[in-house]
Amino acid sequence: MGDWWTPAMMPDPSLDNKELSSISGISMSPSRQNSHHSLHSTMVLPKTSYSVISAFCTEENISQCIAYINQEVCSLGLTGVSLESESGGLSAVLVLNLLYEVLQLQRRAQRALHELETQQLKNSSDLEHLQHSNCRLKDQLEHTRRENSGLHEGERQLQLKIKTLQNCLKSEKEEVQKLQSIISSRATQYNHDSKRKERECTKLKERLNQLLMDKRDKKLSIEMSNYVGRSDGKRGLWKTSKMEARHEGEMYRALLSDYETRQRSLVLENSELKKVLQHMKKDMIAILSPKNVCVQPEPADDSLEQAVSEGEEEAGDRSRESLEQSCEQAREQLTNSIRLQWRKLKSHMERLDSQVSLEREGDEVMSRKEHEDEMQRMRLELQQCKEFIHMQQQLLQQQLSSPCDEETAALLNDCYTLEEKERLKEEWRLFSEQKRNFERERKNFTEAAIRLGHERKAFEEDRAVWLKTQFLNMTPFVDRKRPALSEPHGALAVSTEPEAKLQSTPPLVTKSQSYSVFSTPKAAPVKMPSTADLYRTLHLIPESRLIFQLP
Amino acid sequence: MNFSEVFKQSNQLCKVSPDGKYLATCVQYRLVVRDINSLQIVHLYTCLDQVMHMEWSSDSLFILCAMYKRGLVQVWSLEQPDWHCKIDEGSIGLVSSRWSPDGRHILNTTEFNLRVTVWSLCTKAVSYIKYPKACQKGVDFSADGRYMALAERRECKDYISVFVCDDWHLLRHFESETQDLAGLEWSPNSCVLAVWDSCLEYKILLYSLDGRLLSLYSAYEWSLGIKSVAWSPSSQFLAVGSYDEKVRILNHITWKKITEFEHPATIINTKAVVFKEVEKRPTCLVSDEITQLPAQVPVIKPDPDRANPKIGISTLAFSADNRFLATKNDNMPQSLWVWDMQRLSLLAVLEQTAPVRCFVWDPRRPRLALCTGNTKVYLWSPAGCVSVNVPVEGSFQVQSLFWHCSGSSLVLLSKEHVCLCYLNSCFGGPNISHKHITFMSL
């Protein structure tokens, strides 16, 4: 179609307006545009079509048209129409050939176009097909990927299950082993017990046999020199039902008293614990309430106020309910309120802690520095102390080890030993003095004892005589004199003397006692001096032991 | 500390009278009674055969000597040395003999536990109790001496009989819910009777004095169960030691477990003190040191194929003031564990160089005396630990020991001899330094 227009664009200004309108007139008729039939029809058509062709070529511009056509044809590669025929007349043959070639060209172009079009259609359909298949494959891929992940998931779960089942299996095996060991230990225990019983049984059987065969049967008996009284001194009672009832009564009384004591102690404990809880509650309320003022305004304040008011309310309750001691509700209320307070206190503490930690981050640097300074100072101190101790140790070592080298130390030692010697001498002297005193006293005592013995003998004789005389005097022989009266007096008088002497000596004994030191190993059997024995026999001094020991 | 002379004894028969005035020892067939202060012989009695068991009566007036082989029991009086009494069980034999709490009756258990014969010294009367059970502890007298609990077994079932010791009246007779009763024990306030099963079943039952079941406690099933039981002196706690190396404490209000004490091989509790007896080779001195925690306790694995294996808590003892509990675990035989009952935690572990043979608390103060079969006596108190060598010529291997009722002296028993150790009360006070006291001389 465009071909129709190009001639109009030819530099032919004269044709401008007229051709355009005529061409436009042609463009209106669609039947002529599309088919090469229209060419024929234009050829056949009368003047109107001719007017179209004449738009390009007119009588005047034939040569120009021919030149132009030559040009075009040459550019297309066809043999050109030559104008060199007689006086501007075109050879129809050439023109027809040209036309035929152009037609051929046209046909070829059409065919190519057709082919291209079909090709293009094919390509587009192929493309569509490929796109479709691509989409489909993508979907499939997506689908398979999902399936794959699903399968992975399933596999993982199965693995987990396998692991848990393996663990179960292990634990079951362990339990089985444990049970087996238990069974085996029980079995050994049973065997042991049954063997023991069997042994006992055989012993019984043997004994029974022995008893059956043994003719003399030793009867059981008791021999006692005399009956023993009951431990509480009372007489035995007959067994009657009253006694039985009394026993039952005693038993129940014992049980009751035990329960009562237990209950009393539990009640005491309970009341103490309740008091402690109440104190705790009061303390907690006291701790929580002043915070109302200094803590930052937070919604928690309301809760604190609430808690305080609650607490006060409950304090009122408390005073009432403390009267009913064992009320279950009171107990629950108390524990609940304590728990509530405690929770509040805890949350408050947590808040405080977080605040403190925030603040601390601010001045962390400062405190660390201070901390480090402190540490340094303490380390120095420690070092100093260590050195001091070391020095002390060294000095002490010197002190202890030096005596064997230095003269002054030796002298000192001498002095010490001398002092000790002096002390020992003094004590020895004292000891010997005491010994001497003791000996003297012992001599005195023995003498006195001998004398006393003599006097006693004399006294006895006197007494015998006196009795004899008495007896004789009782008889009718009244005029007999009593010659022996004076003697008993004498014996009595004499006997008082040693007593006096003996009385003087106890003070000496007590004095000597003050020197002695008593450290009696209780079980060590000590030899008794003879004078102590004497004293005891004379009933003058009871069982005191005289033991001398140097301090 | 002072030590007395050494006297002969046989069969570890050496007992102090309940009033603390006399010491009775048996030497073969002779009974020797000494004054406790002077150790002079006060009485000397001769029995008919070697004495197997000797016991003072509760009023310290009589002593019984039992000769099991001949089935004889002879009773001697201290007030009247020429008074004599002989009980002959005849052909039925004798297995054990004991006094009743009033000191006027003697209970003889015949051979094969056929019956218990009750002889009265006041009336020469005899009573019989049939079907007594032969177990670890089948008879127990209450602390006030009023009641006696006896375990019986009839027709494969366990029964418990409670007798009034006054006139041997049967107060209560009830069936016990145990499978195989192993022992029973009255609480110190005489109101509760603890009954436990054999080691094949962990079961401890608590019966009230009138025979009602108060509670049943069972910690676990199937494994070997209870090995030892002890009441605290105030009756507040009941300590149960078992084969799983744990002690469980039950409280007297709910009869439920309040805590359990474990005996691990590694001690990591930082509040506990471990005293370790260490042998120092060159001078042969043994000192007590405090070791650093965590400490390892030597363990001896028991033979799994034997019955009654040597594992588990076999001995428990509360101190007299109820504040401490001493325990011994059989597979750690060289160690003794002391627990604080106020804090319910481990207080000290005493590790010795030989297995602990015997340990006893002082009846007055919180002092523990123990011996391991060597020549030393070890004392522990909250202030520290002391070991004392018995300064006797020849060696005196302390096999067992017990306290005098006043807590002022210890009676030490070797295989054939006995010796007294007098303690001054300063040990146990705050100014005692310890740990390196090695050799104490007179």
Automatic annotation (TrEMBL), chain A:
InterPro entries: Adhesion_Centrosome_assoc, Afadin/alpha-actinin-bd. GO terms for biological process: cell adhesion; intraciliary transport involved in cilium assembly. Keywords: Cell adhesion, Cell junction, Coiled coil, Cytoplasm, Cytoskeleton. It is found in: Cell junction, Adherens junction; Cytoplasm, Cytoskeleton, Microtubule organizing center, Centrosome, Centriolar satellite. Residues 296-327 are annotated as: Disordered. Residues 155-214 form a coiled coil. Transmembrane segments: none annotated. Residues 299-315 have a biased composition (Acidic residues). One of its GO terms (cellular component) is centriolar satellite. Belongs to the ADIP family. PANTHER family: AFADIN- AND ALPHA-ACTININ-BINDING PROTEIN (PTHR46507). This is Synovial sarcoma, X breakpoint 2 interacting protein a. The lineage of its organism: Eukaryota, Metazoa, Chordata, Craniata, Vertebrata.
Automatic annotation (TrEMBL), chain B:
InterPro entries: Centrosome-WD_assoc (IPR052778), WD40/YVTN_repeat-like_dom_sf (IPR015943), WD40_repeat_dom_sf (IPR036322), WD40_rpt (IPR001680). One of its GO terms (cellular component) is microtubule organizing center. It comes from the Eukaryota. It holds the Pfam family WD40. PANTHER family: WD REPEAT PROTEIN 8-RELATED (PTHR16220), WD REPEAT-CONTAINING PROTEIN WRAP73 (PTHR16220:SF0). This is WD repeat containing, antisense to TP73. It comes from Cyprinus carpio (Common carp).
